[in-house]
Specification:
This protein has 795 residues and is of the alpha+beta class. It has 29 helices and 28 strands. 47% of the residues lie in helices and 19% in strands.
Length: 795
């Protein structure tokens, strides 16, 4: 009896290595087992039996070229300080244990910070210490585990494949065989359908059948190879996926056709088989193109058209869309803002926090002339940067969806997979019963019936319904300045019961406020310095104060900038120390029922700017439309606006003032502990913790690059009054998905009824299958567009 290797599961043919009471097929598998055991990662073998990959015996010195500076810079996404970030394509990733092992690399090598797998793209992103672990050594290490990375010019240039060339070639082979097969099967059709016989046709029919066999064979073993691989990997890991019934149908038709030709019983079904695979591959190509189109919209059209501050050589500021940013433009990045592009530092003291990219919280100092990577966050005074690469929104999408900011919940994708799994078993049961029935009545027809059932029952339309509907909804919401992180967020929005609003910068305007100064008269020298200082902050009150100060916009260098979260900030300008913020920061006693920014010069209090907030338009209408939700308002300010807020929101469920960032987070937790599904709306600054804690975090942005990784949604402040429309549209999307589920089941029930009763050929089933997918796509496109016209003006 043949033995299997404990690690890779392959049959042991040559050498047989015993170790730790287990058998291995080679030293490579034994070494990987030892590595995993020594690092307490033996759970790898419990996830999926026989799931390992046999290490490649190739010479790993082929990776030495990766350490060449030019190649290293081209292959890596990020490299600064001790940390580099690289994306490797690893085609052999195939199951959950592969993902688990590749995301546990930091346990195997202390110089790896973290690793994250993208299963659909077969890639792994790795953060590593390039001073201790060379890029070539990292590639060799992965190869030693059996996961050899593919590195070539295409992967180095980070180009996304817009068209699956191998699928097109397989489709072309199937189409060629189908067309010619129909031609060579004409004698058989003429004889059986028209009742005509011809001497030459009769004489050469065996030749024609042999040619049809030759045409069908590459279609089965090449064009259909992806179906066989998918079914095999599934069965190998004890999973019956949706490709198993399809493979059974293909094998049955192909085997029966060979039998009929060899015994001269009939012509077989070679032409039908080629046609079946041609239409199935056509449907698969359509599905891939559909997903690709959605991915393109997601990466480049739907996200982050928030404005960034562009500055000219005279210091004049202008807000432009990120998508309009070009190489050579100069931009301003303030304290706590994300840098949206790769750039060169022109002015300012850079103190870049790359934790969003590398996972490490250490800041890196930068001086003029240094390169700064997209995704870093400035901590300190404002920077002036020159753009050297256009905005890579695909990269920012990866950043937004990073592991640290992910909230795990079961969604419709999981539901679809569960339905598909049970659906496959039900179809196999129906196939068995129908096969037994028709085998007793009409043995020849049984093959057609069984093949038709297996093909028509493929739940492709079911799998398409949720992602395609949500993809359309995300695009429509994005066009209306409501930028959703992922499809699961739409489902979560539809379940929200409670809304928590931060006051400042969310339901109030950043720049529209009544401001007056109380204190000693301030000289122009101090006013210019103060304006330079507030220019560095992205807090709503600082922005309002910047616009209020009517002095010449002359920017002076800011030194020793330091911020105290929730209180304010300080810095030296022209050898003068200024503090701007709350009364506590300055050392003064706050006046009750007042929103004010206190200012001190060289630790001497000189006055305060008192704010009377201007609320956004149509707030009363907004909260009236949100009557179905429980409304709460939080504010870091005192209760000076409480009476005004009660007039705007007469039916509120809770209000709290003097809330620091931790208080806001705990407030959300208490609501969730009561079983409420909470959406938090904040400006993304002091609200980052609360946004992450909430079921749906919505960052409200005004004329700034308020990219907030801890949020699920970024929306334009001017669109706040449309909040109920966004939520209602998300609920409608859930209804549309459920209807598409029903359509998919309807297709399968009707199709199965015809197939089981013997009234449907396998070829017609193969044609109907992509038609069902097309109808689902058409329905979701039309229905989402129609529902969107109720809420938005479609451009």
């Amino acid at each position: 009896m043949p033995e299997n290797c404990f690690h890779c599961g392959q049959n042991i043919e040559k050498e047989r290595i015993s170790f730790d009471e287990k058998i291995f097929c080679c030293n490579g598998c034994k070494s990987v087992y030892e590595i995993l055991n020594l690092n307490n990662l033996s759970d790898f073998y419990e996830l999926n039996k026989k799931s390992g990959i046999r290490p490649n015996d190739d010479n790993t010195s082929q990776f030495d070229y990766l350490d060449t500076p030019e190649i290293f810079e081209k292959v890596t996404d990020f490299s600064e300080g001790n940390t580099s970030l690289v994306n490797f394509k690893i085609p052999v990733i195939h199951c959950s244990s592969c993902i688990w092992l590749l995301e546990s690399l930091q346990s195997l090598n202390p110089n790896i910070n973290y690793s994250q797998v993208n299963f659909t793209r077969k890639t792994v992103q790795i953060s590593f210490n390039h001073n201790e672990l060379k890029l070539s050594e990292l590639a060799k290490f992965l190869t030693s585990l059996g996961y050899k990375p593919v590195v070539n010019l295409e992967t180095a240039e980070k180009k996304e494949e817009s068209l699956d060339k191998s699928l097109v070639i397989k489709l072309a082979v199937a189409g060629f065989a189908f067309g010619n097969g129909m031609f060579f099967s004409y004698p058989e059709y003429a004889e059986h359908v028209m009742g005509t016989t011809d001497f030459w046709m009769e004489k050469y029919k065996h030749l024609f059948r042999f040619i049809m066999f030759l045409l069908a064979t590459p279609v089965v073993f090449y064009s259909a190879s992806d179906y066989f691989k998918s079914a095999w990997f599934g069965l190998k890991n004890k999973i019956v996926n949706i490709d198993v019934p399809i493979v059974l149908g293909i094998i049955m038709l192909y085997g029966r056709s060979i039998y009929e030709v060899l015994t001269d019983y009939g012509p077989g079904y070679f032409d039908t088989l080629c046609g079946l695979l041609f239409f199935m591959l056509l449907g698969k190509l359509f599905q891939k193109r559909t997903y690709s189109a959605l991915s393109y919209d997601r990466d480049y059209k739907s996200f982050y058209p928030i404005a960034v501050t562009k500055v000219d050589f005279n210091g004049k500021q202008e807000n432009i869309l990120l998508s309009d940013l070009k190489v050579g433009h100069r931009i301003m990045v303030r304290n706590q803002e994300i840098i949206p592009v790769d750039a060169i530092l022109i002015n300012g003291e850079g103190n870049i926090d790359n934790s969003f990219i590398t996972g490490e919280s250490a800041s890196v100092p930068k001086k003029p002339g240094d390169k700064i990577f997209a995704g870093g966050k400035q901590v300190g005074s404002a920077l002036e940067l020159e753009v050297i690469k256009t905005v890579n929104q695909s990269y920012l999408t990866q950043l937004w969806n990073k592991e640290a900011f992910r909230k795990y919940e079961i969604g419709l994708d999981t539901l679809t997979n569960h339905i598909s799994k049970y659906f496959t078993f039900i179809i196999l049961g129906i196939t068995l019963i129908a096969g037994i029935y028709w085998g007793r009545i009409d043995f020849e027809k049984m093959f057609q019936v069984v093949a038709a059932i297996l093909i028509i029952a493929c739940p492709c339309a079911l799998a398409l319904s949720a992602p395609f509907t949500f993809g359309h909804v995300m695009r429509i919401l994005g066009r209306n300045k409501f930028y959703v992180k992922d499809t699961l967020t739409i489902e979560k929005i539809s379940k929200i019961s409670t809304l928590v609003f931060d006051k400042t910068g969310t339901i109030t305007h950043n720049k529209e406020a009544n401001i007056h100064f109380e204190g000693n008269e301030i000289e122009d020298f101090d006013l210019k310095n103060i304006k330079s200082l507030v220019k560095n902050s992205n807090h709503p009150l600082s922005k309002a104060l910047y616009d209020f100060l009517k002095v010449e916009d002359e920017y002076f260098p800011v030194e020793k900038f330091a911020e105290t979260p929730g209180k304010g900030y300080e810095a030296e300008i022209r050898r003068t120390l200024y503090k701007i913020g709350s009364a506590k920061l300055i050392g003064e006693e706050a006046k009750n029922l007042e929103t004010a920014v206190y200012i001190s010069k060289n630790n001497v209090f000189i006055g305060k700017f008192v704010f009377k907030n201007e609320y956004r338009k149509n707030l009363s209408t907004l909260f009236k439309n949100l009557a179905g939700y429980r409304i709460h308002v939080l504010s870091g300010d005192n209760a000076s606006e409480e009476k005004q807020l009660k007039k705007i929101i007469p039916d509120f469920d809770g209000m709290a003032f003097n809330q620091n960032p931790e208080d806001k987070l705990n407030y959300i937790k208490k609501l969730q502990d009561r079983g409420e599904k909470v959406a938090m709306l904040g400006d993304g600054l002091n609200d980052a913790g609360a946004l992450k804690q909430s079921n749906v975090g919505i960052a409200v942005a005004d004329d700034t690059n308020s990219f907030t990784p801890s949020s699920d949604v970024i929306m334009s402040g001017e669109k706040l009054e449309k909040l109920n429309d966004y939520f209602s549209f998300s609920k409608d999307a859930m209804v549309i998905v459920k209807i598409t589920f029903a359509i998919s089941f309807f297709y399968n029930i009707i199709g199965l009824s015809f197939a089981v009763t013997g009234h449907m050929s396998p070829l017609f089933a193969a044609i109907l299958m992509p038609i069902s997918s097309i109808s689902v796509v058409a329905f979701t496109s039309i229905s989402t567009w129609w529902r969107s016209t109720k809420y938005f003006k479609i451009k």
